[in-house]
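User: I'm putting together notes for a lab meeting next week and I want to include a structural view of one of the chains we've been expressing. I don't have a solved structure, so I'd like a prediction I can at least talk through. The sequence is below, exactly as it appears in our construct file.
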Amino acid sequence: MLGLSRAVLDFTLLKIAIDAGVEMIQPARCEAIESRPHSASVSVRDLAINAIQCVESRVVIVADGKRSDAWLNTVAIGRHGN
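Assistant: Thanks for the context. Below is the predicted structure for the 82-residue chain, given as C-alpha cells.
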C-alpha cells in the first residue's frame, strides 16, 4: 500500500494555497477568532516581529490537531464527526 507523509501533504497544500493567492504568516499564533454573520475576523500574532494583525475571511480552518478543543467555545464551530 502506498502512503503520503504528513510533511509532503502539508507542503503540497501550502504550495497550492500560495499559488492561489493566499498570504502565509509564519511563524504565527492565532490570538482570537470573532464570528460574524458572513465572515470571521482572526487576530494573528506574527511571531517574527511580535505584531498582531487582523485578517477577515469567509472561511477559517482551525487545523491545530485532532484533539484540540481550544476554539469550540469561542466560535460557532464543531468538530467533524462529533
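A couple of points you could mention at the meeting. Confidence is low (pLDDT under 50) at residues 77-82. The helical segments are 6-19.

User: Perfect, that's what I needed.
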